[in-house]
């Protein structure tokens, strides 16, 4: 009865493995990407594995036909493994891969020869036993070599590709780890473990599930690059050898436990060993620790400078529509050196200090509008100092001013280091790196390499800034030419209309003609005059006389304009008066509120907050809309001719900032994609403005007397 139940369970596992593999084959071939090499080979390997599972349910698992099918699955899975290496022709940079593939193919071809030879000597038990021992030895060699390839496939991949490779590599590792344990026990026990052979469909089922999740994920880009040196591969082989040695010792101990319990203990050991290997081998912390340890004790220098330079050039030189913006790639180029998984880029802002420019894998970092003060930026520019933030946390603050590392960075435990990027002794940016998986103290070699990389990156950023400035100048020139044509046409139309008005006055005796012409000319003249006034306002930028006015009255007028369009909520406000042009401020606020409404959902309110902060009044326009990326804020928000509206000039945000600046204030923006945007207007109070004007006048008088 027990044997019948066991057979039913085993047959059920075979059928489940076959059905799972066939379903995944159908799903893969139905995808648009099925024409790719990886997809085709994965479907082939799964199809052959399904045939093996069905045949194993119907025949003796030790039959020669089943062994030939096992060899066929090995060839197919090995072919898939090589396709993962050969994606985008990356196998050309991995010299040892092809020889290992050829050796493993030869080993399995010999295995096929052993199978046919056993069929020829079916009546000779001695020959059968000898051939079986050789077959098991060759299978052990194949499994070890295949696991080494899987290991190097994963650890040699680029950081951004490991997420895509994790599950396919795990699928291959499960299959060959199971067989490694199976054939090791068979070799040590001098007999084939029937229970483990029966349960081999479990490994196929697990591999199918892992491969399915991995292949059907949205991330399809597989980009690889080789590991630093042969030492890391050698160390990987040593780890696999040690694992095999421990496994042999444990298997020998199992053999002494007694025949009755051996199958159950063998199966339990295989599951435990496979689970341990899959849990620790993909660990990023373990790999980082190994890399740091090997570099520290086996190499004279921490870095392979040739490999670092090639990687840096590849990261910065990446182009195309799918490539990340240059500022994000600049952060990645610095982070790759220290194995940092995330980073930020700060660049100078017009008001002084530095602001967030780009994020790389660090969306959760809460960065204020002024990320680094003027004093902090001056420190990095003058000292060219690479700051280890942990030194400040540990109290080592000699010669480092407090402004060098703002409080928000000290409170964020992920923040680890700050690297300045200087171009001709001028600070262009600061890169903030997050803590690597294995944190360490930065030493002289880190400082030297980061300093060189920083200068090289600064030259790229300066070149892009120059190109942007040149492009903006060209767009201004084009804008001026277009406006010149528009003004010319308007003047011609105005002259014609004036002439028509004069003729109409001559025919005043015709009542019908006179009434019609005067009405038409009056309307046309009004429209042209309004257009001229509107065009003439651009460029004035709030040039009206400044006077004290009630700030809340302006905010009320702005909110009233949107009463029937969108909900605008006024929060508690302080009574205050500021010095400036109320019409210009109203124009700027209308634009900011309209932008907030455009970015928000219809039922989501826009908030206007106003408060007095020392000698200044602060107005905040806050929305919960789609938000903006640092790249957009830096390159497009305050740049003319970048409009998201059809036919727009894209000068609204630029004009708003200039209007506020003309009143002695400033306009800041804080935005997070998917969360919302906060525009902050800071204006001096009227009393503070009078005091500043008085002090400025006294200073000018003293200068004249002197």
From TrEMBL:
Entry coiled-coil feature ranges: none
Top enzyme category: transferase
Any single GO BP term: phosphorelay signal transduction system
Pfam families reported in the protein's UniProt record: HATPase_c (PF02518)
Transmembrane segments: 12-30, 42-59, 65-85, 97-116, 136-155, 167-189, 195-216, 237-258, 264-281
UniProt cross-references to SUPFAM superfamilies, sorted A to Z: ATPase domain of HSP90 chaperone/DNA topoisomerase II/histidine kinase, GAF domain-like
Keyword tags: ATP-binding, Kinase, Membrane, Nucleotide-binding, Phosphoprotein, Transferase, Transmembrane, Transmembrane helix, Two-component regulatory system
Domain of life from the UniProt record: Bacteria
Domain Histidine kinase: 485-687
EC number(s) given by UniProt: 2.7.13.3
GO molecular function: ATP binding; protein histidine kinase activity
PROSITE patterns: HIS_KIN (PS50109)
Name of this chain's protein: histidine kinase
Taxonomic lineage from the root: Bacteria, Pseudomonadati, Pseudomonadota, Alphaproteobacteria, Sphingomonadales
């Amino acid at each position: 009865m027990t044997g019948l139940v066991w057979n039913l369970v085993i047959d059920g596992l075979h059928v489940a493995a076959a059905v799972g593999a066939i379903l995944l084959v159908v799903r893969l071939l139905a995808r648009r990407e099925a024409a790719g090499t990886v997809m085709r080979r994965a479907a082939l390997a799964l199809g052959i594995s399904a045939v093996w599972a069905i045949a194993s349910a119907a025949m003796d698992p030790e039959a020669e036909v089943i062994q030939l099918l096992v060899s066929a699955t090995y060839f197919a899975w090995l072919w898939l493994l090589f396709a993962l290496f050969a994606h985008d022709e990356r196998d050309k940079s991995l010299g040892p891969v092809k020889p290992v593939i050829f050796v493993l193919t030869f080993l399995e071809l010999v295995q096929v020869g052993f199978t046919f030879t056993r069929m020829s000597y079916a009546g000779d038990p001695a020959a059968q036993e000898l051939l079986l021992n050789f077959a098991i030895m060759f299978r052990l060699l194949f499994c070890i070599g295949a696991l080494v390839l899987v290991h190097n496939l994963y650890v040699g991949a680029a950081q951004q590709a490991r997420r895509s490779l994790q599950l396919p590599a795990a699928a291959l590792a499960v299959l060959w780890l199971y067989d490694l344990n199976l054939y090791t026990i068979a070799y040590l026990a001098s007999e084939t473990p029937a229970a483990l052979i029966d349960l081999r469909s479990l490994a196929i089922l697990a591999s199918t599930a892992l491969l399915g999740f991995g292949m059907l994920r949205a991330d399809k880009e597989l980009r690889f690059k080789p590991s630093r040196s042969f030492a890391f591969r050698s160390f990987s082989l040593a780890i696999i050898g040690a694992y095999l040695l421990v496994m042999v010792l444990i298997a020998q101990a199992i053999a002494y436990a007694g025949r009755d319990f051996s199958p159950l203990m063998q199966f339990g050991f295989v599951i435990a060993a496979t689970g341990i290997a899959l849990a620790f081998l993909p660990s990023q912390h373990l790999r980082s620790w190994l890399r740091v340890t090997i570099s520290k004790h086996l190499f004279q220098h921490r870095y392979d400078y040739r490999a670092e330079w090639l990687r840096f050039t590849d990261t910065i030189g990446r182009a195309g529509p799918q490539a990340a913006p240059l500022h994000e790639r600049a952060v990645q180029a610095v982070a790759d050196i220290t194995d940092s998984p995330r980073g930020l880029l700060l660049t100078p802002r017009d008001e002084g200090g530095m602001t967030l420019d780009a994020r790389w894998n660090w969306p959760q970092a809460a960065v204020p509008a002024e990320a680094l003060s003027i004093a902090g930026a001056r420190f990095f520019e003058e000292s060219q100092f690479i700051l280890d933030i942990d030194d400040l946390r540990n109290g080592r603050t000699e010669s480092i001013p407090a402004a060098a590392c703002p409080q928000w960075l000290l409170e964020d435990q992920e923040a680890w280091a700050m690297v300045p990027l200087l171009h001709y002794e001028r600070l262009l940016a600061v890169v903030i790196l997050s803590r690597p998986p294995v944190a360490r103290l930065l030493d002289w070699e880190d400082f030297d390499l980061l300093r060189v990389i920083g200068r090289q990156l600064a030259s790229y950023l300066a070149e892009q800034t120059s190109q942007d400035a040149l492009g903006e100048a060209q767009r201004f020139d084009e804008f001026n030419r277009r406006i010149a044509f528009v003004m010319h046409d308007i003047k011609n139309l105005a002259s014609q209309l004036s002439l028509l008005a004069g003729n109409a006055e001559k025919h005043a005796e015709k009542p019908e003609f006179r009434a019609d012409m005067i009405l038409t000319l009056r309307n046309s003249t009004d429209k042209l005059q309004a257009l001229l006034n509107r065009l003439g306002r651009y460029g004035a930028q709030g040039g009206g006389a400044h006077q004290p006015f009630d700030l809340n009255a302006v905010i009320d007028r702005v909110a009233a304009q949107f009463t029937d369009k969108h909900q605008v909520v006024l929060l508690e406000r302080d009574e205050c008066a500021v010095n400036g042009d109320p019409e210009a401020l109203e124009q700027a606020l209308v634009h900011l509120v309209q932008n907030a409404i455009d970015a928000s959902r219809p039922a989501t309110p826009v908030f206007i907050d106003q408060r007095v902060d020392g000698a200044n009044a602060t107005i905040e326009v806050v929305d919960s809309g789609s938000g903006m990326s640092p790249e957009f804020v830096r390159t497009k928000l305050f740049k003319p001719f970048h409009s998201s509206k059809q036919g727009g000039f894209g000068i609204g945000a630029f004009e708003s900032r200039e209007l506020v600046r003309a009143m002695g204030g400033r306009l800041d923006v804080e935005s997070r994609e998917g969360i919302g945007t906060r525009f902050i207007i800071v204006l001096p109070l009227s009393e503070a403005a009078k005091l500043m004007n008085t002090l400025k006048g006294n200073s000018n008088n003293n200068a004249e007397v002197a």
